[in-house]
């Protein structure tokens, strides 16, 4: 690969050259990261041995603490190695849809949008809100955001499905406990090197006025665009830009990405299960439950991973759940990250 990268003729095809340089950088980062971990492991083992010989428990304790931190980093590197799918390294679209339940469900959808925004920001990723439909009283009916960052789709792809919330509703005057459902759907951004043929006669294009925050031009022109792909029933919408032309172009990109993601799911022989989780937002299809009352617990129903800190999870602390789901996806069964050799 180094020989190819150093060949001046590679820049005859700039797109291919950039792809090669990205691959080389990722390999360099992986190799250098492994070397750094090996050096830190060796250094801390030596410190422990030295501390034990000299009877200095402070040195031993510091080195042991460093090894625990190192173990967490090794676990993360192991998970990163699982992100080897065809589109795992790509940016991703993430859609949120409220389920039945009116205001309560719409508020839950808004909480999920905030949760994934916080997760992305904690990982140094950039988030762009492409479209949002506000609820009548509070929350949102739906939203689509674009998450840009290293392995964005790889990390978020296991989040697709129905998410269940149990809490005392702030919208219930009698302070009763409510159960709400909202769904998450992720699909990767694709570049020009991936060709997805779409027959425009198979699509219906609608324009409408944007809703939600967006400045003085919102709701004054039909700049938002919705494209429906009739053969599959896939619907995408974009209202990010003030220009209808720009929103239309982004909507076409989103549709190509959705169709590509559907093909990836077929290759993984999971299309039927994924489609069911998307179309029926309710009991029996949830992947994760968030219980705020009468006790505090977040539990992933696929892997059994749990957290007794729901607020931390809702603030974006999702890595533990994502890592377990990725491990299960690769190794099957109820694989735990700690069991990966």
TrEMBL record:
Localization annotation: Cytoplasm
Processing and modification events after translation: Methylated by PrmC. Methylation increases the termination efficiency of RF2.
Coiled coil ranges: 17-80
Gene Ontology MF: a single term: translation release factor activity, codon specific
Transmembrane segments: none
Record domain Prokaryotic-type class I peptide chain release factors: where: 209-225
Alphabetical list of SUPFAM superfamilies matching this protein: Release factor
Keywords: Coiled coil, Cytoplasm, Methylation, Protein biosynthesis
GO cellular component: cytoplasm
Functional description taken from the UniProt entry: Peptide chain release factor 2 directs the termination of translation in response to the peptide chain termination codons UGA and UAA.
Family membership: Belongs to the prokaryotic/mitochondrial release factor family.
Protein name as it appears in the record: Peptide chain release factor 2
Organism, scientific name: Hoeflea olei
